[in-house]
From TrEMBL:
This is Transaminase. InterPro entries: Aminotrans_3, PyrdxlP-dep_Trfase, PyrdxlP-dep_Trfase_major, PyrdxlP-dep_Trfase_small. It comes from the Bacteria. Belongs to the class-III pyridoxal-phosphate-dependent aminotransferase family. The lineage of its organism: Bacteria, Pseudomonadati, Pseudomonadota, Alphaproteobacteria, Hyphomicrobiales. It comes from Shinella sedimenti. Its cofactor is pyridoxal 5'-phosphate. Pfam families: Aminotran_3.
Length: 455
């Protein structure tokens, strides 16, 4: 079916499905009131309005992969808080840790008795020898960038077009007509971010060599698979080239595993033997509690020791926040690393992701659509393109907000919550084989409706 016809059909579907959504949710509708709620836009975080629903789904309860909304509708969650709940809502060991942590003190600005165990677990699981904690992945990226600049004495940063690494100003840029400029929607930024950040297309080895040639880039910050602009896999050999060229240029390699931790135990880095200088993870690492971790090599750690010794006084390094490294975070990290983020959990996630990938591909072929399914472990993304996209320009060309919204709303009305701003399915260990099958059936039904084979 032609893209224009598909989009016209998607618009009609959105209207009909929005009506169904409204009819089932009088309480959720009534709860969305800026004046009465006291919240700007009527929600505690303005992104909550960016879903394709007429008003936000208000969640009364979330457990495992099931959400129950304020109107009592039950939904299977494959958004999982955009990865924050990748291991399911409220994994039992994390709930137990939360309970115990509450009794033992939540935050003291001192190491708790869990600290040494957690440090060892991070080294064992992710390979790098020295770690620190933050509260969010955005924080961890900011801290790691700061360290990269401090130890290299260089100001510039390189990112890939279409990236998202959190609320980190230096990375909120776009590549427009060959020029790096501040991202259009970024609020209150008064600096020209293109002065110190270079953005190049992913998988472009020539552009990478060019950008690194002046030996003035402190670090390259990259997701191993780009997950925030469709899902863009690395071309064969790209990571080898990236590592080789960064080493040659004296540039550090900072890998952001926040989403690609879906790959398997130890993230994409461990599974594919990458050799980053710095690594960042957040979101699901504490089972849903706000905590992030960032690790560094021994060489960076040694340099940082020297720099810190040369500084007079203490504090205000720009690294860390008051609640980072808290007893609460350490207790939840320990529970997650010891009992939740396990080989068994990943094996279950992969098995259901295999089923969903095969089922989605069959549904797409059955509907005669030229779409692909991109995947990194337990994370799958439907891309509206016949071939896997190679960079953000191709991903943007393939995307359609209208078709995406129609998919999301229709799937939600059939009881499945996809990730907004994506066509993303995240498979938690709490998802059953039956629920995976139900998801595939719902997807197939929605495609049939989209191509008008079914009403
Ligand atoms: N890194 C990546 C790759 C992300 O996708 C995100 C958020 N989507 C972040 C970092 C930032 O995470 P947070 O919003 O939890 O700080």
């Amino acid at each position: 079916m032609e893209r224009a016809n598909l989009e016209a059909r998607a618009r009609a579907l959105i209207e009909a499905e929005a009506e169904v959504f409204r009819a089932r949710r009088p309480r959720c509708a009534a709860a969305h009131d800026e004046e009465a709620s006291g919240f700007f836009d009527g929600v505690p975080q303005h992104w909550m309005l960016d879903w394709p629903t007429p008003f936000p789904l208000v969640v009364d309860q979330a457990s495992g992969v099931e959400l129950v909304d304020l109107d009592g509708n039950r939904i299977v969650d494959v958004c999982l808080g955009d990865t924050g709940a990748m291991f399911g809502h409220g994994p039992a060991p994390v709930l137990e840790a939360l309970k115990n942590a509450g009794m033992r003190g939540l935050t003291t600005m001192l190491p708790s008795s869990d600290a040494q165990v957690v440090g060892r677990l991070l080294v064992e699981c992710f390979g790098l020898p020295r770690w620190q904690l933050g509260a969010t992945a955005s924080d961890a990226n900011r801290f790691a960038i700061r360290v990269a600049r401090a130890v290299t004495g260089r100001a510039k940063l390189l990112v890939f077009d279409g990236c998202y690494h959190g609320a980190v100003d230096d990375t909120l840029v776009d590549l427009v007509d060959g020029k790096t400029i501040s991202r259009r929607n970024l609020l209150g930024q008064v600096r020209d971010l293109g002065e110190l950040t270079v953005s190049i297309p992913f998988n472009d080895e020539a552009a990478l060599a060019d950008a690194l040639a002046a030996n003035d880039i402190a670090c390259v910050l990259a997701e191993p698979v780009m997950t925030n602009c469709g899902m863009i896999p690395p071309a064969p050999g790209f990571h080898d080239t990236l590592r080789h060229l960064t080493r040659e240029a004296g540039t550090l390699l900072l890998i952001d595993e926040t989403h690609t931790i879906s790959t398997g135990l130890g993230g994409y880095t461990k599974v594919h033997s990458l050799e980053p200088d710095l690594i960042v993870m957040g979101k699901p690492i504490g089972g849903g509690v706000p905590v992030s971790v960032w690790g560094m090599t021994q060489a960076i750690s040694d340099k940082l020791h020297v720099i810190r010794r040369e500084q007079s006084g203490h504090g205000h390094s720009g690294i860390g926040t008051t609640l980072s490294g808290s007893a609460l975070q350490l207790a939840c990290l320990r529970a997650c690393l010891e009992h939740v983020m396990t080989e068994e959990a990943y094996a279950k996630m992969q098995a259901n992701a295999d089923r969903i990938e095969a089922g989605f591909k069959a549904a797409i072929a059955g509907a005669g659509l030229d779409w692909t399914v991109s995947r990194v472990g337990a994370r799958l993304e439907v891309v509206f393109s016949a071939l896997p996209v190679k960079n953000a320009a191709e991903a943007r060309a393939a995307a359609s907000d209208t078709i995406e919204a129609a998919l999301h709303l229709s799937m939600l009305n059939l009881g499945y919550l996809l990730t907004p701003f994506h066509n993303m399915v995240l498979v938690s260990p709490a998802l059953s084989e039956k629920q995976a099958g139900g998801l595939v059936n719902a997807f197939s039904t929605v495609l049939e409706r989209l191509i008008e084979r079914r009403a």
